Amino acid sequence: MSLVLDPAAQDLLFREARTANTFTDEPVTEEQVQAIYDLVKYGPTAFNQTPLRITLVRSAEARERLVRHMSEGNQAKTASAPLVAILSADNEFHEELPTLFPAFPQAKDVFFSERPARENAAGMNAALQAAYFIVGVRAAGLAAGPMTGFDFEGVRKEFLDDDHTPLMVVNIGRPGADAWYPRSPRLDFDQVVTTV
Fold it and tell me: What is residue 168's three-state secondary structure?
């Protein structure tokens, strides 16, 4: 059985998708970011909880503050990317559930009244939304450079608050010269999928 999605779109979103390490200086506009969000916001999550929060780092001053928290190997590319996004999980996402999940508005209190339950759900579902976001960046014809090599607590204190947990930093833009490392291997179907 073949996939329904056009092969060119399959290539754009998956087969040719790579983590970019260099970028051109072409800016990423607010309109592009809005279009990305307007697409990926429809990706499903448990209870439609939508815990992902996106902090766009645009100013030179904020960029300098962020670069200080990046691992040494990630500093130069974060300093030079046209746009950098800090993706985080909102651990107080449950406050929006009566609006976002009207079929069962009491889910806010039934399942998420305790902070540990919220943190677990927020982390898992925001990570899922972060994956949607990366695919959305690719759908916009841009390259994404997601990274977890940074001081998580430093970024949280510098840019977020105690109710938000950083997940990753994503450099965004048009790929520059020598943007890609060689493609790494992937596991085969039978190494991943088990039928019981």
Answer: strand
The number of C-alpha atoms within 13 Å of 82 and in the hemisphere containing its C-beta is 19
Task: Give the helix ranges, DSSP H, for 41-88.
Answer: 60-67, 72-80
Per-residue pLDDT of the chain (196 residues; tens, 9 = 90+): 589 999 999 999 999 999 999 999 999 999 999 999 999 999 999 999 999 999 999 999 999 999 999 999 999 999 999 999 999 999 999 999 999 999 998 999 999 999 999 999 999 999 999 999 999 999 999 999 999 999 999 999 999 999 999 999 999 999 999 999 999 999 999 999 999 9
DSSP letter at 48 equals: G
Q: Which two tokens stand for residue 13?
A: 């979103």
Helix, strand or coil, per DSSP, at residue 164:
strand
Query: Which residues touch 169 (CB under 8 Å, ≥6 apart)?
Result: 66, 70, 74, 78, 84, 85, 86, 87, 146, 147, 148, 150, 155
Any residues with CB less than 8 A from the CB of 104 and at least 6 apart, and which?
A: 47
User: Are residues 112 and 124 in contact, defined by beta-carbon separation less than 8 angstroms?
Assistant: no
